[in-house]
Write a structure and sequence with these properties.
This protein is an all-alpha fold and 103 residues long. The chain contains 5 helices and no strands. The longest helix is centred in the first third of the chain and has 27 residues. It is elongated and about 60 Å long.
């Protein structure tokens, strides 16, 4: 996974808060409070993992915008020519319609 400058800053910000929490979780584990230690350790790991892999703001924003935009504005290509999948399905439906008319 290649990280850009903003991704690195976000990761550093997550680690600033997650590392002390993980340190405290390890201290609680050594002290014998297993449930609290494991729970805090899970939270510390989630603070780093979730934003990097699941809560990518760019991906969420692109998905939201692509859902709101009309179909003609979604793709980078021209709106007049259909996508290759659409062209194949259009050709298949045209040939099947021609077969029906012949029979």
């Amino acid at each position: 996974m290649r990280l850009g400058l903003m991704d690195m800053i976000g990761l550093a910000a997550s680690l600033v808060f997650a590392l002390p929490l993980a340190n405290y979780a390890l201290i609680r584990l050594v002290a014998g409070e297993v449930a609290l230690g494991v729970g805090l350790l899970v939270v510390a790991v989630a603070m780093v993992i979730l934003p990097q892999y699941f809560l990518d703001p760019g991906r969420i924003l692109r998905g939201l915008l692509s859902g709101l935009l009309p179909r003609q504005l979604r793709g980078g290509g021209g709106a007049s020519e259909p996508a290759p999948e659409e062209a194949e399905s259009t050709d298949a439906s045209a040939s099947s319609a021609a077969d029906v008319r012949e029979k």
